[in-house]
Design goal:
alpha/beta, Rossmann fold, 7-stranded parallel beta sheet
């Protein structure tokens, strides 16, 4: 259907070389968008670019470090001047080296730094992108949050493992969801749609016992692939979602249905 097409539209994807980000970049490009990867890892771009080129996808790269909050306003302005995007996706996932500590061991310094790098950066980027999109007649912003911004983790899936979901993760993702609604209400009258996608667990070679427990807890019986998240993002970017703003779209294989 034509309403799902993104032909001729320019999209910025922060964290576009990450696991989920790259899936989103590929999906948007396959739908016809001209995609700009905004990522800190310029070295990884060389390998990724070859894959995009071989697939015949229109993808470019512009270096951006979302963890440097003081530069974000100027960075968004520069992206807007250079590319005039109508789609902006916040998929970056910066984190500290001690990310993954549990609630009883996480330090206040780590908590604050991760909130700044993840939640604050995503909110600043979305806010600045919305301001520029509104000045040019509108567009679509999609933030990436998590089911754990909506519901509590099921800690049973981590039984017997050293890994857990970091406590700051819930606060970060919940904050992104709330701010998405705020921006949707503020900018809706100027044609800017702001929505948030909440993925369930994405398979990334986690321990076998975790994967088995997670899949047993999920009605569709498996963890997500990046492509599972990318499709809904492309939908929200398109005219097919033209009457959607402020929505929290659960993409979790039914995890939150129980």
């Amino acid at each position: 259907m034509q309403s799902f097409a993104l032909d001729g539209r320019t999209a910025i994807v922060t964290g576009g070389l990450g696991l989920v980000g790259r899936g989103i970049v590929t999906e948007l490009a396959e739908c016809g968008a001209n995609v700009i990867v905004a990522d800190v890892d310029s070295a990884a771009w060389g390998h990724a670019r070859k894959g995009f080129d071989e697939a015949g996808l229109t993808v470019a790269f512009d270096e951006m470090d979302v963890s440097k909050s003081a530069t974000l306003q100027d960075s968004v302005a520069a992206f807007d001047r250079a590319h005039e995007p109508v789609i902006w996706v916040n998929a970056a996932y910066p984190r500290t080296s001690d990310w993954g500590d549990g609630v009883e061991t996480v330090t206040s310094e780590s908590w604050s730094r991760n909130v700044d790098m993840q939640m604050n950066s995503a909110c600043i980027l979305a806010s600045e992108a919305a301001r520029h999109l509104a000045a040019r007649g509108g567009g679509s912003i999609i933030n990436i949050a998590s089911i754990y911004g909506v519901v509590s983790p099921d800690f049973a899936v981590y039984d017997g493992l050293e890994m857990t979901t970091p406590p700051a993760y819930a606060a970060i993702k919940g904050g992104i969801i709330a701010y998405t609604r705020y921006l949707a209400g503020y900018w809706g009258g100027q044609g800017v749609r702001v929505n948030v996608v909440c993925p369930g667990g994405v398979f990334a070679d986690q321990p076998k016992s975790f994967v088995a427990a997670y899949e047993a807890r999920t009605p569709l019986g498996r963890m997500a692939d990046p492509e599972d998240i990318a499709g809904p993002v492309a939908f929200l970017a398109s005219d097919a979602a033209r009457y959607m703003t402020g929505a929290t779209l659960m993409v979790d294989g039914g995890w939150t249905a129980r």
